[in-house]
Structures are given as structure tokens and as C-alpha cells.
Amino acid sequence: MMKIQKTVEFVHEKKKQGFGPAFEWIANNSHCSNFARSLNEQLSRNSFLSDKQLQAAMTNTKPMRVDTRSDNFQKLFAAFAKAQKGAKRPPIFRAGVEGDAHGIRLNMAGPNAKPANQGCLYVLEDAPYDERAYLGKITPGGEYRPSYAATDLHRKAVDLVADDPWQAALTYGRAMGRCSCCGRTLTAGKSIEDGIGPICKDKWGL
After folding, report:
1. d(Cα 199, Cα 180) in Å, to the nearest integer?
2. Looking at the whole model, is its pTM more than 0.85?
3. How far apart are CA 192 and CA 19, in angstroms?
4. Fewer CB near the terminus (10 Å): N or C of the chain?
């Protein structure tokens, strides 16, 4: 109880110093941002965050540029809808462009997502879990809302997915040597050429 009170007092004091948006960002993004999650865990554990950490969190509170795609992304959402039928695990779609060492990965917001994220696709860096950056979200209405971490290469990969998911899968598979859907290494000649394995190709309707 004392720790909770100490945390409340710390947050209240820092909000008076102008860090209110940082705490709001941490609370709203702990489910999808490793950085926000680590800050939230540290705050709960130690009842403290340094001004440097809070300033870093504040950079994420700047208004995000909205990239409107109107009718685009429909093929992508349709592919996710097909892949989700009978799936034991949440489907993941990967894409990339030349020059990007990791590429991006997309997954549907879960049933416990905040109302504003329901039906959205999260966009993350396709990197090891501890290094995976949150790159924004794609809304059912066809808007990509990039995060501060999204680079021009990430946006280019999202553009490719918006225009042609199949081409995005092919580009990723050929560049990374892995299936753009399940992430397994491609070994068969046809799968390497397609950038996706035959089972995933049918499962996703690509």
C-alpha cells in the first residue's frame, strides 16, 4: 500500500512538472511498445522514473502524421480475415523493402485492446522481441497512423502492403529467405520464388 501511495505521489509531482502526457502514453501503449512496457514495469517496481526516461517518453506524444489510403488495405484486411478462420495462433504478416534489415510485421489487435484500437492492425518492426519497435497502426478505415519510430523505409513497406499484399509477401520472402506469414525458412524452389510457403499461401488466400 505504501509503494502504491509513493507511486501516486511521484506521478502527481511529475505531472505538475509537465510530464503528464508521458504517463498517459506509457499507460496506453504498454500492450504494444516494449519501451512503454519497460517504463511501466519500472514505475510499478521502483515508484520512480528519471527525467531522461520521461523526456524520451514525451517524444512519443507528438501528433502522428496520418497517411490515408482510402480503399487500400482492403486486400490486407480480407487476407487477415481468411487467415484467422480456424487459426490456433493470431496470424502475423511480414513485409519489407530493399535496404531494411528487418522488415515489418503486422498483427490484428486482440480482443482486449482499447476501443480505439479494436479492429486495427498493429505495425511493428520484425526484429527480436526485445528490440521490436512499435511502428503504428492501420485502422479499418484505411489510415496508417505511424509512430515516432517509423522510418521512411517502414512507411515504404506499409505502402507496398497497402498496394499489393502478395507483392509485399514476395519481396519479403525473397529478401529474408523466410515465409512472410509463418516466418519459417523457405527451402522449396517454388516457395522461395513466391516468398511464401504453399500452406500459408492457401491459408491467406494470396
Report:
1. 12
2. no
3. 49
4. N
